[in-house]
Amino acid sequence: MDSRQNIKRLLTLGLILLSCLVLFFAQGFLSSFNIRILNLAAIFVILGASMNLVLGFTGMFSLGHAGFMCVGAYVSAILTMSPASKELIYYMEPIIPPLANVHWPVFPAIVMAGVVAAFFGFLIGFPALRLRDDYLAIATLGFGEIIRIIVTNTITITNGSLGLKDIPSIKSLWIYWGFAIATIWILKQLINSSWGYAFKAIRDNEIAAEAMGIDVFKHKLLSFTVGAFFAGLAGALMGHLITSVDPTMFRFLFTFQILLIIVLGGLGSLTGSVIAGVVVTVSMEFLRFVEQPINLFGLIIPGIPGMRMVIFSLLLLMVILFYRQGLMGTREFNWDWILDKLGVARRKERGVA
Amino acid sequence: MLKIEDLHVYYGGIHALKGITMEVPENKIVTLVGANGAGKSTTLRAISSLVQPTQGKITFHGEDITKTKTADIVKKGITLVPEGRRIFANLTVLENINMGAFARNDKDGIKKDIQRIYEMFPRLKEREWQAAGTLSGGEQQMLAIGRALMSRPAVLMMDEPSLGLAPLLVKEVFRIIKEIYSQGMTILLIEQNATAALQVADYGYVLETGNIVLQGPGKELAANDEVKRAYLGKA
Questions:
Q1: Is A242 helix (H, G, I), strand (E, B) or coil?
Q2: Among A308, A305, A151, which Cα is nearest to A239's?
Q3: Which residue ranges does UniProt annotate as crossing the membrane (chain A) (predicted)?
Q4: Residue A296, pLDDT score
Q5: What is the strand order of the sheet B55-60 is part of?
Q6: Distance, in angstroms, between A320 CA and closest chain B CA?
Q7: Nearest-CA distance A262 → chain B (Å)
């Protein structure tokens, strides 16, 4: 192999080591508040990347992400809570027997949450994916809300609108970012496989994709199910971060927050989702000061709750007006680009013999 | 080798094809001409299973493919170059060509075929790494044809390949059609440009509002006044 390939491999290794180092020091020196924000950022990275798979790479305008998160959060919570705290929390109506005594370790429970969410994704995708564009958006939005309403009403399983508390807490950056990095890696492999190319072909032109012999429905269903899997995973992590879940957390407005991230980052770019996921989550916290009363050179502005969202709305408007592709468009981070900028010689590799 | 018998297609209440019977023999160019809405594209879409006929039978090498799924029809060797080019705009030219081989698994064969396509369309090679959406209309049509050839079809169906192209490029498209044909391909061609299509075709069918009104060897039809009448849609 040529030197360029070796350099790239070294750089990738270096980057992995560097991120481990950053995580190590962040875990050791940051305040627990800041660690919590970074953990939330990891969750939004997973959400952004998985919704981007569905919307940005496969071109399906689906708005059911919050619903799948809801499924994931509840599955992991019910599986990991101790039987004793279940008895305490389900005081209105006791939990049904088979679930009362399950007490799984956290890791398999989170994966199971993804699997159950994926199953729901499959069930919903089967009828809904026959629609496209706005109709699909409306249908998935509806299904997302249906999930939430079912959760509110199946009291013997989910404790209804009282929600669940006492979910085993996870505080470690390693777990959240570990899941985030694994998600990105898996999605990247998927997108660069022949399935991924089929997704992109379907996004660009469904009729042509079908004429090329791509089974459009099967691929759409696959993309949708994988998206639901990671949404469930992120929902589970959210539960363990906050240590309580209730159905109102997963209103459809939540989906729009993820939509904001992927539009800002670029539809069809995982890199964009990662960057925008971190930036939006972190600034969502640090922009809290705009909701405090501000004394601007004698002009006193009273604190207005919700001002942060105004800033994001303005940002979104700017992006849509002047930078329609988002931060990254459909481009991805790659070493070649950086090496080119640094002037490292490139072997004439593109003239395929 | 491709036979269509008494094919009826409805779009909701609209009776788009009213019993078409036609045949595409091996190693021939067959063309379907007719005005807008005559049912030309619908015929191709029905062969590809993109629409389901309500009545009639489509056979390929004697095998009934009326209800076969599109993906399997491509595997059997019938590929459609859809109307209006429909390239994958955000993928590169090479990725587009590779998508054409989606139903295939033989890596070496695919590599060879890519080279063959590049020889046929040197412009595509020049633009290998460019997003296909940045190509000109003519180049996009070349790409659409090249992409379809990547599935190694036995029958290539082309839906208005000269649509929206400058006269010089239309000539180029017909030159390519003849070239592909001379390499032993069977072609089913749809055209609004009836004169040009009938010139290259071995056999032609003239469609009018869902019915075949005339058929015969291409050159004969080209000279026929009746064709001009049907094509222009005058009563």
A1: helix
A2: A151
A3: 36-55, 62-82, 102-123, 135-154, 174-191, 221-242, 254-282, 294-323
A4: 75
A5: B14-24, B2-11, B55-60, B63-64
A6: 19
A7: 17
Nearest residue to B95 (alpha-carbon basis) of B129, B56, B48, B52: B129
Nearest-CA residue of chain A relative to B83?
A: A208
Residue-wise over A104-125: b if at least 16 C-beta within 10 A, else e? eebeebbbbbbebbbebbeebb
Q: Is A213's Cβ below 8 Å from some Cβ in B?
A: yes
Residues of B in contact with A210 (CB under 8 A): 50, 70-71
**Amino acid present at B116:** R
CATH topology of domain B2-232: Rossmann fold (3.40.50)
A93 touching B, CB under 8 A? no
Amino acid in the structure at residue A95: I
Chain B contact for A194 (CB, 8 A cutoff)? yes
Taking only the tens place, the pLDDT of each residue in B61-104 is: 989 999 898 888 998 999 999 888 889 999 999 999 999 998 88
How far is Cα B83 from Cα A211, in angstroms, rounded to an integer? 11
Identity of the amino acid at B211: N
Q: Which residue of B has its CA nearest to A268?
A: B90
| CA pair distance B218, B196, nearest whole angstrom | 10
> In chain A, what are the domains?
9-292+303-342 (1.10.3470)
Distance from CA of B87 to the nearest CA of A (A): 7
- Closest residue of A to B46, CA-based? A211
Q: Complex ipTM, two decimals?
A: 0.87
- Domain residue limits, chain B: 2-232
| Set of chain A residues whose Cβ sits within 8 Å of the Cβ of B100 | 212
The two tokens of residue A142 are 């509806």
CB pairs under 8 A between A and B: 76
For residues A158-187, average pLDDT: 90
Q: Which of A90-94, A252-256, B169-173 has the lowest mean pLDDT?
A: A90-94
With beta carbons under 8 A apart, name residues in chain A contacting B74: 211-213
- Integer CA distances (angstroms), B103 to A195, A213, A298, B76, B99, in order: 12, 6, 71, 10, 9
Give me the residue from B70, B102, B144 closest to A198, CB to CB: B102
Closest by CA to A56, choosing from A267, A205, A262, is A267
Query: Is B188 strand, coil or helix?
Result: strand
Q: What does the alpha-carbon distance between residue A315 and residue A294 come to, in Å, rounded to a whole number?
A: 21
Contact B190, B183 (CB under 8 A): no
What is the amino acid identity at position A6? N
